[in-house]
Amino acid sequence: MKSIKLFIWAVLATITAIIALVSVGAKAIKVGELEDDINRLSVELSQAQIPLQRDTIRDSIEVVSQVVVEVVPKEMKEALAADQKLISELELKVKQLESLQTTVVETSDTVPAHHEPDDSLYYYSDEWADLQLSLKDTTFYYNIRDSLSTMVYREYRHHFLWWRWGTKGYRLKIVNFNPHSRVTYNKYIKAGK
């Protein structure tokens, strides 16, 4: 009788262990699928255009703020598909990249031109642009300078008094010092862990 009870307990323990292993295995598969979905969505997010948040400092200097897209290294190649030609021309491999930033700046403005009648020359010049139009030999000379500063910073998940800890994510701020130009597009992809 004791051996039958022991046998039944052993069978029940074995069945319980098998059920536990199967359920843990199913959960592990589900977690793997969810991680794949997260990676796929982060790649799609990196390829989508993330809206820029605009602000101004010192009354006239434009500041653009945006979320940094973090991509796991194995998905980095897919996220950088559009930049693959440039990366190969620079003789780099995707594995080497820590981050990639693409910024598009549009420069447009209406400025008064000064006229020199004896040379048929119209010109404009300031700290950011030099423009000259010569009607005599029908040439147009322009030189436009830009100055951008990009800062990537960590957003803390928790803070209490002066202590900050944990990482919620990363953001970047782009400061455009040229009053004639405007940042129209930005993409920043960072290789995650």
Outline the structure in words.
The chain has helices at 2-47, 73-79, 84-89, and strands spanning 53-57, 61-67, 69-71, 99-107, 114-116, 121-125, 129-134, 139-144, 148-160, 163-176, 181-191. A four-stranded antiparallel β-sheet has the order 1-2-10-9, with no helix packed on it. The protein contains three helices and eleven strands. The chain is elongated. Helix 1 (2-47) packs parallel to helix 2. With 193 residues, the chain is an alpha+beta fold. The model has no long low-confidence stretch (mean pLDDT 79).
Secondary structure: elements and pairs:
Blueprint: H1 2-47, E1 53-57, E2 61-67, E3 69-71, H2 73-79, H3 84-89, E4 99-107, E5 114-116, E6 121-125, E7 129-134, E8 139-144, E9 148-160, E10 163-176, E11 181-191
Parallel strand pairs: 3-11
Antiparallel strand pairs: 1-2, 2-10, 4-11, 5-6, 6-7, 7-8, 9-10
End-to-end C-alpha gap: 58 Å
Overall 3D form: elongated
Mean pLDDT over the residues: 79
Order of helices and strands: HEEEHHEEEEEEEE
- Poorly predicted parts: none
Structural class: alpha+beta
Helix content estimate = 25-40%
Residues in β-strands, percent: 35-45%
Largest sheet: 4 strands, antiparallel
Number of distinct helices: 3
Order of strands across the main sheet = 1-2-10-9
Rg measurement, Å: 29 Å
Count of individual beta strands: 11
Short description:
The chain is of the alpha+beta class.
